Amino acid sequence: MENSTKSWDDKSTFLFLQLGTMLEYFDLMLFVHMAVVLNNHFFPQNDPNITAVLSAIAFCSTYVFRPFGAWFFGYIGDKYGRKPTVTITMLMMGIPCGILTLLPTYNDWGIWATIIVTLCRIVQGMSSLGEIIGAELYLIETLKKPQQYYAIVTLAISSAFGSLFALILTSFAAMSSGNNWRLAFGFAFGIALAGSAARTRLRETPEFSNMRLRLKNALEQGDQKETSSIHKQLSNETAHTQGQNHKTLLMYLLLQCMWPVCFYFAYMYCGDLLKILCGYTSAQMVVQNLLVAVAQIIGLFFVAVTLRFVHPLTIVQVKLAIFALCVVLCPFILESIYASSDPLENAYNGQKIFLIQCLFLIFAPSSGQLLSPLVYAHFPILKRFTYASVPYAFSRALMYPIASFGLIYAIKGFGNYVGLWLIFAPVTIAFGVGLAYFIKLEKLTLHYRDFSFLEPFSKNKILSK
């Protein structure tokens, strides 16, 4: 009976987190994809250059202030637990959506409307960091391997579905007139409130609770030996040399720098190309992004199935090799699009851009957070939330501005070939360096070559020493 209850609790926890992540990313990405609509209402339209700059600032502000969110949620997550963070973040994500349902436009409030929209994006950006890290840690500290791998990938699928639903709603808003976009944000606000209330039913993770209990008991009993052991474990829990945690944090930062560039390039930069080179309307751009999101979800499902037979590190290595090839070939495709001057080829050029978008999102080795269970295992439990969130936040704060402004000026100044490689080559190399480091750590801990995680799915037990 006890095992049955525990199984039910695990399943309900898993569903609550997956559903909550989907709803929270729906709220976040509604803001991102609805930019094509919101810019017309909350930014000045008399000067396209000013509009472009203010729009870029609003987009980057979502990520530039994430380090503050990392320290804030890291403190809450490590001191009070994972449960409060995943509850608070959903509420913080919904409040800006509620504001957007009532906020007067630029024509009514002027620059104040622009400032409030930007502040709303900052709050959402900070809360999304606490959400994804909190949800990942909650699953990793609740489940065992190999269930951790599948849970993290399905978490990525849930967030992708949230983005997909946001795109669907954005497409309707873009194709319709009036204030239908306000109804979309009102709906997002309602589901955020419901999701936040539902998450209050979650329990704290066993791994975090047990460590807190051990430390509390040792202090109460005056057990100096146990207290010293715990503090030693907290300072360098699984590292093999003194000071290893700092290097591990740096390598984790290198792993996180790729995805922001890929996301911005696929959705924002390629979106501008669709508008400028192919003559796409806002509605057509949203529809194409919708198809790209579907392709991304299919790719994540394929990864989830592959995990039944292949170690996550092997999958990431294969994706990195394919991605590097995409980086090499992409400028040639872009050059052919720029060289085309026939308006009749716009649809064909749009298909080329669609191919580029899919390749960069599906084969980006950092997509799906496959490495999270492996990386977080090398962070101390009672510092894990801070250690996981700070590099994640700084990578977004650093790379989104670089992607937003760097891609434009690098390609404009050096052309498609040198400009694109100038941005993508460093992040690809950095990811390779970080990946090599964690492969080394896994080999040292005898995890990488241990194929026992395949036992539940194979009649023949494959064990390698």
Description:
The protein is mainly α and 465 residues long. It has a single domain, classed as Up-down Bundle (Growth Hormone, Chain: A). Helix 7 packs across helix 18, helix 12 packs across helix 18 and helix 15 crosses helix 18. 46% of the residues are buried. The N terminus and C terminus are likely disordered.
Please report the total strand number as a whole number: 0
The tally of structural domains comes to: 1
Identify the CATH class: Mainly Alpha
Main beta sheet: none
Shape summary: globular
> Radius of gyration, rounded?
23 Å
Which architecture does the CATH hierarchy give at level 2?
Answer: Up-down Bundle
Concise synopsis of the structure shown:
With 465 residues, this protein is an all-alpha fold.
Identify the notable features of this structure and list them briefly.
465 residues, mainly alpha, Growth Hormone, Chain: A, 79% helix, disordered N terminus
Topology:
Blueprint: H1 2-33, H2 35-42, H3 48-64, H4 66-79, H5 82-100, H6 106-109, H7 111-140, H8 147-175, H9 180-199, H10 206-221, H11 224-235, H12 244-256, H13 258-276, H14 282-306, H15 312-339, H16 346-362, H17 372-376, H18 384-444
